[in-house]
Amino acid sequence: MKSEYHGIYAALVTPYTSEGKVDYRELQKLVDYLICQGLEGFYVNGSTAEAFLLSEEERNSTIRAVVEANSGRAKVICHVGAISTEHAISFAKNAEKCGADAVSAISPFYYKFSEAEIVQYYQDIMSSTELPMFVYNFPNFSGFSLTAEVLEKLNHNKNLLGVKFTSSDMFLLEQIKTLHPELVVWNGFDEMLSAGLVMGADGGIGSTYNCMPKLAHKVYDAFEAGNLKEMHLYQAKMNKVIKTICKYGVFASVKEILEMDGFAFHGVRKPFTPMTEEGRKELRGVYEEIIIPNR
Ligand code: MN9
């Protein structure tokens, strides 16, 4: 049976004002726009949101603004991960207070924490609220790779609901879903959405879905309809856009494309670099060639 958590979720980007402050109004406009485009939910304060470049207060206000704009229409998952368990718990409590549907957390990073320490970190966060938890597995960035055994340990907690799986290890994705069919697995690399779905993912959470929600949904719908050839075709179209997005910086590029649709986001926070003229031109090219005709 399909879980209530499925489909395409945007890992929301963070809009800024011309002074570099978080622009909550513009963020709320984005939430409304993406719901109208057919997305099933949002991942707030994730990597895509430049969460580790935001202050605690900004992260707390961001989830409040998203829940308010969403107004019960789509699902809202709040990423609460931090290097310190205490901070992560504080973000989780705030997410619960604001009315988020679930939390998610990257494993604590920078120090080489032991597996036991990482397990305890998740247990502590899960015990701090009533909200369900999606463990965020992103070995490239966090340095920690989730295993079926660690998940087994975490699964004793009633609040564990699933995994956001940002890795190209499709074997592991399949193993997780097969060993734990009750858990929800999210595909995390947008360029591999079709592969993740085929190997058992319930849906995808990603940054590029902000700027091509319809095309991403076509991949998902083709999979659901059992039309694998069509699914591959749409994935290949998406990947032409993603290739350009990756070339010029994922977050700056996604924002740049949304600006072509009328949003005002004012770039990315340092040390990320602003969009170049060359990037802007190339992104405009894929926007016109692929995004516009596929919505
Ligand atoms: O977690 C996202 N990863 C990051 C998911 O933001 C670092 C993905 O959506 C990627 O941005 C995307 C492009 O590689 O797949």
Could you explain the architecture of this structure?
This protein is of the alpha/beta class and 295 residues long. It has a single domain (2-212), classed as Aldolase class I (TIM Barrel). 48% of the residues lie in helices and 13% in strands. It is built from 12 helices and 8 strands. The protein has helices at residues 24-36, 56-70, 85-98, 115-128, 139-142, 148-154, 170-179, 193-198, 213-224, 228-247, 250-260, 277-291, and strands spanning 7-11, 41-44, 75-79, 102-106, 133-137, 160-165, 184-187, 203-206. The protein has an 8-stranded parallel beta barrel, surrounded by 5 helices. β1 (7-11), α1 (24-36) and β2 form a beta-alpha-beta unit. α2 (56-70) packs parallel to α3 (85-98) and α3 (85-98) runs parallel beside α4 (115-128). The longest helix is centred in the last third of the chain and has 20 residues, at 228-247. The model has no long low-confidence stretch (mean pLDDT 97). The structure holds 2-(acetylamino)-2-deoxy-D-mannose (MN9). 2-(acetylamino)-2-deoxy-D-mannose binds at residues 11, 47-48, 166, 188-191, 206-208, 242, 246, 250.
